[in-house]
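Blinded run. Sample ID left blank on purpose so nobody reads anything into the name before looking at the predicted structure. Input follows.
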Amino acid sequence: MFALGLPLFGVYVIWRYKRKGLLNDHYTHLKIGTLFDGYVEECWYWEGVLALRKLAMVSVTMFASSLHQAMAAVLVLLMCLVLNETYRPFDEERQNYRWALLRRFDLCAICANIAIM
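Blinded prediction complete.
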């Protein structure tokens, strides 16, 4: 419940502020800015996508057999890498470009590490 409910609630709260046009308001940034700050405006929901990635990885490690666990984890991470490259959710102008690059290398390194196992 908490693994899916809290991220969905966070995305819902952000959506309510976005619908009212208050995402760029100073008070909104003070209140819930950590949930959407650092992403481009079109990807305000990306924190929920990251939570789903974590939930998928936990599900793979808990429910997949040991034989298929590594391959399923690589598949989940590759899908996340494709999503990151397709949508480019990180605001590279506000954040350091190296930070966004490190996120991409992080996913690649995890995929390579699991594939070697």
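Unblinding after everyone has recorded impressions. Residues 66-87 form the longest helix (22 residues).
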